[in-house]
């Protein structure tokens, strides 16, 4: 017996609603969040950018940090047939900045707003909203040092969440300048001196190299030992402190609700000053939908002209889980019109299908297997069609067809040259039809009536 192949652990297939077993694997949920993402891009003036899924291994080592979990434990790295050391991207920002440098976009000193979406790869333990092939949306505002751009990127993310009907919390912090972080790192190590003494030499070395990683932990014992650690906000230098005060005032002025959370530091080395997360209380503690912040030194680290920037990444799987949990969207497709035909009328049926498709009335399905009309009507029911357009030999001979409403069973005879007009008159009801389907309503005669 031949081996039955399965999707690898930490991955999944996205399937139509009838086949999907969970929201993140349901194509209708994906269509919904993608639609809102692209709408948000357009409304805030962010342009689409797409970069390869694999890059030079050194790109991620340089930007994420040699001691980071991403580099040391989670990255999918390999040597290709040209003897090059490569890695599947674990995150987007490094590749996006590499592309902007290579494309010469930063040489002019202009600011750019770009947005991305696609898969990333991390070899971690799969769990709720965590996968080895994960997917992200992201927004990057490149070439501006203003605290107003920090506020804008937060507004962008929140606008997308609102567009999906989610109730979320914006949690913000400042990790200051490199000098601030160096000084505060010593405070962290001093505070955890007793705890570190009980750790192995590898953990001690990593802590000494980047103490901030100790703050970005879910380890209960470490979190308990971090209690009482002075807030970094009390140790900002003058410039970072002023910037922080200005950001808080701007968010208040813009009426953007936020929570100051000194525990937020982000897990990558390239952040400075502003950092933030967006959480959804419905998903539980310590699960964020979005993380972001300022990374003014990243582009220079990659060999480009020093360019201040700020950005955010959104986990698509967690976003879908939040939408499903909040029940702000029930997956359903557009109305389906199933054209039922016989052999003699197939050419006419195809012409009618093309006319309806050009008007974008929904999904137009035409039988491709030469089944009997009885079997075609059964198939129309199986796929959830709203209407059947039936081309019988007798009616077609008289230039008519039958339009049947499959939920109510009502039908009417319509001249063939008026079928498109009939659905045009009903077009305004199609949005209501989808809403009715989601709310459990009946719809008949082009007018909806409650059960």
Overview of the structural elements:
The longest helix has 21 residues, at 419-439. The strands form 4 sheets. The protein has an 8-stranded mixed sheet. The chain has a 5-stranded mixed sheet with strand order 13-12-14-15-16, sandwiched between helices. The model is unreliable at 436-451 (pLDDT under 50). Strand 3 and strand 4 form a beta hairpin. It folds into 2 domains: 23-176 and 236-326, BirA Bifunctional Protein, domain 2, CATH 3.30.930; 336-449, Rossmann fold, CATH 3.40.50. It is α+β, with helices and mostly antiparallel strands and 451 residues long. The protein has helices at residues 27-44, 57-64, 69-74, 93-102, 147-163, 178-191, 193-197, 201-209, 220-225, 238-253, 298-301, 316-326, 346-358, 373-382, 393-397, 419-439, and strands spanning 47-48, 54-56, 77-79, 85-88, 112-121, 133-142, 169-174, 259-260, 272-279, 288-294, 309-315, 336-340, 363-366, 387-390, 400-405, 411-415, 442-444, 447-449.
């Amino acid at each position: 017996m031949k081996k039955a192949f399965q999707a690898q652990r930490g991955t999944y297939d996205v399937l139509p609603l009838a086949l999907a077993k969970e929201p993140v694997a349901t194509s209708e949920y994906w269509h919904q969040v993608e639609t809102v993402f692209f709408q948000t891009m357009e409304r805030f003036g962010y342009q689409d950018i797409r970069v390869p899924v694999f890059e030079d291994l050194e790109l991620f080592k340089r930007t994420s940090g040699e001691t980071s979990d991403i580099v040391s434990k989670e990255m999918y790295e390999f040597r290709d047939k040209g003897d090059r050391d490569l890695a599947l991207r674990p995150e987007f920002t490094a590749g996006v900045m590499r592309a902007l440098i290579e494309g010469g976009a930063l040489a002019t000193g202009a600011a750019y707003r770009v947005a991305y979406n696609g898969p990333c790869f991390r070899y971690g333990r799969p769990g709720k909203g965590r996968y080895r092939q994960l997917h992200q949306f992201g927004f990057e505002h490149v070439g501006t040092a203003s605290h107003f751009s920090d506020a804008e990127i937060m507004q962008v993310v929140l606008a997308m969440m609102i567009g999906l009907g989610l109730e979320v919390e914006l949690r913000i912090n400042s990790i200051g300048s490199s000098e601030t972080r160096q000084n505060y790192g010593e405070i962290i190590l001093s505070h955890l001196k007793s705890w570190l003494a009980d750790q192995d030499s590898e953990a001690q070395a990593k802590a000494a190299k980047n103490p901030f990683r100790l703050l970005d932990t879910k380890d209960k014992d470490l979190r308990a030992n971090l209690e009482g650690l002075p807030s970094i906000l009390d140790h900002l230098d003058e410039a970072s402190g002023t910037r922080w005060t200005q950001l808080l005032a701007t968010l208040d002025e813009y009426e953007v609700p936020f929570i100051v959370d000194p525990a937020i530091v982000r897990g990558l080395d390239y952040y400075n000053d502003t950092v933030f997360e967006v959480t959804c209380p419905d998903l539980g503690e310590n699960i964020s939908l979005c993380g972001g912040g300022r990374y003014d030194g990243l582009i220079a680290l990659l060999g480009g002209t020093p360019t201040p920037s700020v950005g955010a990444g959104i986990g698509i799987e967690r976003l879908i889980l939040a939408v499903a949990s909040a029940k702000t969207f029930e997956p359903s497709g557009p109305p389906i019109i199933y054209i039922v035909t016989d052999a003699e009328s197939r050419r006419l049926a195809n012409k009618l299908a093309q006319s309806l498709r050009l008007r974008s009335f929904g999904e137009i399905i035409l039988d491709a297997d030469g089944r009997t009309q009885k079997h075609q009507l059964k198939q129309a029911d199986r796929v959830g069609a709203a209407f059947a357009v039936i081309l019988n030999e007798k009616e077609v001979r008289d230039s008519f067809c039958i339009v049947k409403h499959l939920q109510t069973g009502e039908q009417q005879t319509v001249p063939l040259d008026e079928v498109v007009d009939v659905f045009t008159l009903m077009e305004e009801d199609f949005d209501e039809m989808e809403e009715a389907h989601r709310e459990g309503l009946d719809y008949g005669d082009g007018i909806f009536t409650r059960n």
